User: Fold these one by one.
Assistant:
Number 1:
Amino acid sequence: MDYIKAFVIGGLFCVVAQILIDKTKLTPARILVSYVVAGVILGAIGVYQPLVDFAGAGATVPLTGFGNLLAKGVHKAVTEQGLLGAVTGGITAAAAGITAAIFFGFLIALIFKPKEKS
């Protein structure tokens, strides 16, 4: 059942993004940034965590989950370090995921030879 919940919630995020692409003049980049900002705001006010508890990876893997992770990291760092935590908290919280993305992207670039589209 956990897989179905994750699939449905993650799919709903994708459906909303596709509707925004099709029905508005927003660029995909602006939609992606909007998702991150929405995750930060929803995480900061405490609304996103119940969704994470319900959907698991369906709520943590999309960009809204990244925004939520940033908000949680900043909140934790501010309570521990004060105002300096507002600057360092998000970076510290997201460091493992960003490092993994860079590492695996580099690894794939070494294995496969990129080609230009023709």
Number 2:
Amino acid sequence: MKATVKWTDGAMFVGESGSGHAVVMDGSEELGGRNLGPRPMEMLLIGTGGCSTYDVMAMLKKSRQQVVDCRVDIDAERADAVPAVFTRINMHFVVTGVGLKESHVKRAVELSAEKYCSASIMLGAGGVEIGHSYEIVEFEPGL
């Protein structure tokens, strides 16, 4: 896997993935940025949530669950000192579907946390306290 990050101006950088997708990252105006994109540490958090949600959805699809929507709300804390690493991350999955089985959702979240999500497992191995929770919402057409 490869990527390139290029400085463009002030505190703005453009990252390009090996698959050719680009994203702008920028700092706050106080730090010389123009606030035109997420911060690099926000990208790390978003990537971790994406990695885990991908796993959860793949497992729910494989178990033939009728998922209509899935999101993960991520709450994180960082150290006050430099380096301002993540110290705690909580990922709360909200899975909406038709007749979802709690055992399948619970297992998908657990397997992502313990076995499949490379990003969260890597951060956890580095000392970040990572929590996972979930809730199931029954889909109601027309709402």
Number 3:
Amino acid sequence: MPSSTPRRPDIPRNLKPYFLCLLKKGPRWNITEGNEDLMPRYLAFLRRETEARRILFAGPITDGGELVAMVILEAPNAEEANAVANANPSVESGHFITELHPCLLPTLDTFKVEY
């Protein structure tokens, strides 16, 4: 049955729920001793989660402030999105802390990042 409410032409038709994860400097941000393998583990995590399509894309924030990166996650609920975000080796080590926000974006179903 068609909707009786006309659709506004300026609203995207293909919105889908995702999660925006903001990564901020954590309490161990500047501590490198004992964490020499952190960057390779972090990059392996990003690749694994991107290939599994739990992380759709991620990138650094380069203005030198407290925010250091952003990630778009696809998950059925906030608990699962939070689990992925907190499995990040840099979060586990205390170098990053996460801030998770539900968001609506045009569908990213065909969007693919290649590593």
Number 4:
Amino acid sequence: MNDHTSGADLLSVTYASSATELMSVGQLVELIEQIRPKNERLGVTGLLLYSGGTVMQTLEGDSRVVDDLVAVIETDPRHNGVRVVDRRLVDERAFSTWSMAFRNITSREVADLQDFSAFARESIGDDLGAHAVAAFGLLETFRLNAV
């Protein structure tokens, strides 16, 4: 994907939330297929992780566009308890080739990731700041393996 956004305006936001209803793999794939064309038009890239009702997503793009998307997600009835884990201006995209990569994480994979387990246990609290490192470690693991 061409990056028409200058480094000064390139924003990366990672949030975690709980889905209000569990989604099947088919429903998740359908949702991602709806998201991708819109993200391409908006110049947004990123990664969406889903595991048993827990959603974690990184969005990258023009700061105004990404902030607007996060505002929409925060009011989306499919999400509960949207918490921004990290918001930062970046020089380059981590997910530059993906309009939205997606990974449905199995419970076994979650169990094998101690950092994510600690993050998931603590994420029901209000302060995710201390767990941002674990969230980014998880994103990096799956960034290398996402479809």
